[in-house]
Description:
By secondary structure, the protein is mostly helical. The chain has a domain at 59-90. Helix content is 29%, strand content 0%. It contains two helices and no strands. It has helices spanning 8-23, 73-90.
Amino acid sequence: xxxxFITRRDFVSAAASLGLYLxxxxxxxxxxxxxxxxxxxxxxxxxxxxxRQQPQYESLVPYIxxxxxxxxxxxxxxxxxxxxxxxxxxRTLPLADSFQGYxxxxxxxxxxxxxxxx
Length: 118
């Protein structure tokens, strides 16, 4: 017959399971009910939670957005930058209805001698 060896991991697992089984009240195989007023040994103990400290700059967070600090024009500059970047992406200009003239968006150039009509 072939011998089977138990590994350390299996032994520790079995020992831990046996310890938890014996500590569990009431035992599932016992016929006598346990008294209701006795505390079970596996009650969770309160664990003190220590949260991280707030960053030192936490009081300055309201001033991070442009325009909420000593530079009021910074908000307007940020808005202008946003609109200019959007113009490059969309390649359109928000022109007024009464605008008369040509769009400053460049038109592709034609090669010399090429026909303008496709």
